[in-house]
Amino acid sequence: MLLIRSVLFNTAFYTNLIIRMIVLSPIYFLMPRKAAYRIPKAWAASCNWLMAKIVGATFEIEGLENVPQGGCIFAPKHQSAWDTVALLPYQRDPVYILKRELMWIPLFGWYAMKQRMIPVNRGARGKIMIDVMKRTREEMANGRQLIIYPEGTRRPPGAEPQYRYGIARIYRDVQVPVVPVVAHWGLFWGRRKLIKHPGHFKVRILPPIAPGMDPDAFYAHLLETMERESDKLLIETVEANPQLPLPPTAVRRLAELKAQTAA
Q1: Residue 181 lies in a domain
Q2: Which tens digits make up the pLDDT trace of 149-158?
């Protein structure tokens, strides 16, 4: 049954994406940028609906009141393709720093350009990075939310953290609050996994970290806060969903946490 539901979901997911792009793209490109965001936002909401109705995987969000009204940086844990779209319906005007190659993809790249996403050559230095940061500050000044995954790439639930220092440099240069976000999407929609698992879990938006800290102190504080809260939420998620098959990283981390509690 899990296989059938997962295949049905994958089919519905891509069919939904293709049909919306074909039907709505002409409207999207004629609309003003902020109004046009309603189209990808509605698509993201439909993805969450498909996960709920076909797979049986649902989530609730705690801490929306922690999101500042002005420009800020969202810093979520990144475990799954799902977490790249699932929160879009709850974000007012997000912006991403993307590797420039993604901007060359037909339709996707055009959608991204319309939303003023910020392309970057990952090997770039000097003036190019100065220009990227200038663009980022401009978007933050317009009240947008910059989405940055502190670990840079998807990591399985419970995996040893591998945070990158880049977020500390951006925090120093942009001078806006950073909002950590933790959740264990990967237990339900794993990286490069066909099977999707039913269940219910929480996404926790933590209190923002105010601008102005020393970058090294900020980096240490962000890592400690996110990993502590992620561990708590891992325990809660597994206890609330005992049917889930756990990846080895989660099994190992839960054993470590249990041993720490016993000590």
Answers
A1: yes
A2: 999 889 999 9
